[in-house]
Amino acid sequence: DIQMTQSPSSLSASIGDKVTITCRASQGISTYLNWYQHTPGKAPKLLIYAASNLHNGVPSRFSGSRSGTDFTLTISTLQPEDFATYYCQQTFSSPFTFGQGTKLDIK
Amino acid sequence: EVQLVQSGAEVKKPGESLKISCQGSGYKFPNYWIGWVRQMPGKGLEWIGVVYPGDSDIRQSPSFQGQVTISADKSISTAYLQWSSLTASDTAIYYCARRGGGDYGDAFDFWGQGTVVTVSS
């Protein structure tokens, strides 16, 4: 199985901050990397697909990038509704594993 | 509008069987893979597997092989996740999600609301 390692596991930030979350794949996955936002009590929500493509309706403050097997989710200006847990997921080969998650909370 | 509606919360005893469902609407159900994801209490998301309703093809994580059964009935636009004998470790929230296809990097683009399964004696 391909292992996905996110860092950090948790992160405290303030409204208006710029935040970066990283996800590293244990082997090459091309651009088959997706990012989700998950708030307790709600269904996960797709933010970014294929490493850098913004899903429909997702605010432009979210962006994704790739460098080899390292992937980055950036939130340019944190808003109150962005405090949640973020997961990466590879869809290069089955099983399509998730990272362990990064919990973003308010400083 | 694409929607995935899951069956309601379940409380079961160890050893009992269970089948939960996920009904899709607003799109051509047979043409998109449907996946299942587990979230155990206080833990992250885990990919269980996917089913293609058009021909019932299944891809399943080795971690869940033999533990659960994934299926689909395209005639009623519904996917299923079932257990023959539950254990306490099956206590979790289970989400279904539509795999968006190649144009979306095979990401899960629409999700159900989740089904809470509690297994306790």
Task: Describe the protein in words.
- The complex is a heterodimer of chains A (107) and B (121).
- By secondary structure, chain A is mainly beta.
- Chain A has strands spanning 4-7, 10-13, 19-25, 33-38, 45-49, 53-54, 62-67, 70-75, 85-90, 102-106.
- Chain A has a six-stranded mixed beta sheet, with no helix packed on it. Chain A has a four-stranded antiparallel beta sheet with strand order 1-3-8-7, with no helix packed on it.
- With 121 residues, chain B is mainly beta.
- Chain B is 0% helix and 50% strand.
- The radius of gyration of chain B is 14 Å and the shape is globular.
- Chain A binds chain B through residues 1, 31-34, 36, 38, 43-46, 49-51, 53, 55, 85, 87, 89, 91, 94-101, and chain B through 35, 37, 44-47, 49-50, 59-63, 95, 97, 100, 104-109, 111-114.
Structure described in brief:
Helices cover 0% and strands 48% of the residues of chain A. By secondary structure, chain A is mainly β.
What's the structural blueprint in terms of helices and strands?
The complex is a heterodimer of chains A (107) and B (121).
Chain A: E1 4-7, E2 10-13, E3 19-25, E4 33-38, E5 45-49, E6 53-54, E7 62-67, E8 70-75, E9 85-90, E10 102-106
Chain B: E1 3-6, E2 10-12, E3 18-25, E4 34-39, E5 45-52, E6 57-60, E7 69-73, E8 78-83, E9 92-99, E10 108-111, E11 115-119
Parallel strand pairs in B: 2-11
Antiparallel strand pairs in B: 1-3, 3-8, 4-5, 4-9, 5-6, 7-8, 9-10, 9-11
**Termini of chain B, distance in Å?**
40 Å
Percent in strands of chain B: over 45%
Rg measurement of chain B, Å: 14 Å
Radius of gyration of chain A, taken over Cα atoms and rounded to an integer in Å: 13 Å
Find the structural class of chain B using helix and strand composition: mainly beta
- Overall mean pLDDT of chain A stands at 97
N-to-C SSE string of chain A, H for helix and E for strand:
EEEEEEEEEE
Please report the two chains with the greatest interface, counting residues with C-beta closer than 8 angstroms to the partner's C-beta. Answer: A-B, 28 and 26 residues
Element pattern of chain B in H and E: EEEEEEEEEEE
